[in-house]
Specification:
Elements: E1 6-11, E2 15-22, E3 25-33, E4 43-52, E5 57-61, E6 68-71, E7 85-92, E8 101-103, E9 108-109, E10 113-116, E11 121-124, H1 131-141, E12 148-151, H2 160-181, E13 188-189, H3 200-208, E14 214-217, H4 220-232, E15 238-241, H5 254-262, E16 265-267, E17 273-278, E18 282-288, H6 303-320, E19 325-330, H7 337-350, E20 358-363, E21 369-373, H8 380-393
Parallel strand pairs: 1-14, 6-8, 11-12, 14-15, 18-19
Antiparallel strand pairs: 1-2, 2-3, 4-5, 4-7, 4-13, 5-6, 7-8, 9-10, 10-12, 16-17, 17-18, 19-21, 20-21
């Protein structure tokens, strides 16, 4: 998947809609509510309420309506006693009756590095593949921060001075959070000390700024403020205020691509059809050769060709729709194990750019492809539906 090169921001009275675009293709749509800002990645000093030995999990009071849920795999040390303070970070927001998912493996993100104060060692983004480049980067960062360091994809090719500056900014934010945690009583939201973590545009620039070429906003004041900030930081990203009768989301046909992401069935250029059927426990995806199976005067397409065309679209839609949990894909049946491996490799390559952890399990005996995608907030459809409902209630 190509790197995100354009950010288009549509400003609404109650929300920002941030379209992340790569080579004209909508990769992700972030719905950032002004009246209900996301707390994902927020760091809290919580209080342990109770441990559930049968689940090897605990509930943590972080000062929100629902207590957070901490699983054993997200725990750093043994369970502290009830009432003890616990430093945690929100991995995902609550859904329905479920509270937010928490982790004790706190992370502070920069543009090139992710710092885990309680971790150890140096690790790398999956997209930094060359061994010599990994060794070079590890040599530069190993002594910059005491703890665990993850080098993000954007770090590839970056010099030591830039990495050092990124590490210094990360450490400044972490020290501010750490010092405050020593002087407050739980529960307390510590991320409020670093307001840039609450700014959706700032976070998008942090996460994708190394590849971004242009930011487009349809709010003049915000565009001017962002341009001033880019000038101050000596960034080369272009900032453009979009005005006129044509909506900002008509650029790159973002509006049309959003409509496609809300549809149950999508039709690819060749006529291949992909059907998405979300359920309570899993999402079923069905690939149909449709009108691409053999147009008049042309030989029928081989199943592997149909599936190779569908794989990038499926990867795009899983991320764009923010589909989570178990996913089963019914590709057009392939008899050759070589063809199945080829399709699996293509799907894996397309999903490399997805920041949400995804596990590919491969084809079952029945020929179905299984994967899981971690939950990071609500689906795109439910977010847009909630935003529309809030407008109706206003």
């Amino acid at each position: 998947m190509s790197r995100i090169d354009r950010l288009i921001c549509h400003v609404l009275p109650k929300a920002f809609l941030l379209a992340l675009v790569a080579d004209g293709r909508l990769v992700e749509l972030q719905v950032a509510r002004r009246d209900r800002p996301s707390r994902v990645e927020g760091i809290f000093l919580g209080r342990l309420e109770r441990v559930m030995p049968e689940l090897d999990a605990a509930f943590i009071d972080i000062g929100l309506e629902r207590s957070g849920f901490l699983r054993a795999e997200d725990r750093i040390d043994d369970w502290p006693p009830p009432g003890a303070p616990v430093l945690v970070q929100m991995r995902s927001e609550g859904d329905g009756d479920k509270g937010p998912r928490l982790t004790m493996n706190v992370a502070v993100s920069g543009r090139y590095l992710v710092y885990h104060p309680l971790g150890e060692g140096v690790s790398f983004s999956r997209r930094i593949e060359g061994e010599s480049e990994r060794e070079r980067l590890a040599g530069h960062v190993a002594s910059l921060l005491e703890g665990g360091i993850v080098l993000r994809t954007a770090a590839a090719g970056v010099g030591p001075d830039v990495l050092q500056a990124d590490a210094a900014q990360i450490m400044e934010r972490w020290e501010k959070i750490r010092r405050h945690a020593l002087g407050v009583q739980p529960p307390a939201d510590l991320t409020a000390l670093t307001p840039e973590e609450r700014d959706p545009i700032a976070r998008a620039l942090r996460d994708h700024g190394a590849a971004l070429e242009e930011v487009i906003l349809d709010d003049r004041a915000m565009a001017r403020a962002l341009q001033d900030e880019m000038d101050r930081q000596r960034e080369k990203i272009r900032v453009r205020w979009h005005s006129g009768p044509i909506p900002a989301f008509d650029i790159d046909d973002v509006a049309g691509q959003i409509d496609t992401a809300l549809a149950q069935r999508i039709v690819l250029e060749s006529g291949v059809e992909v059907l998405f059927e979300p359920g309570e426990t899993l999402t079923a995806v069905d690939v149909d050769s449709g009108s691409a199976g053999g147009r008049q005067g042309r030989a029928p397409r081989r199943p592997v060709e149909v599936n190779l065309e569908a794989a990038p679209a499926i990867a795009q839609q899983l991320r764009l729709r923010n589909i989570a949990g178990a996913v089963v894909i019914d590709f057009v049946t392939m008899r050759s194990a070589y063809d199945r491996d080829k399709v699996q490799a293509a799907l894996a390559e397309e999903m490399k750019g997805d920041p949400v952890p995804t596990q590919l399990y491969g084809f079952t005996r029945l020929g179905l492809f299984e994967l899981t995608r971690a939950r990071r907030g609500a689906t795109l459809a439910s977010q847009l539906e909630a935003l529309e409902k809030s407008d109706d209630d206003a």
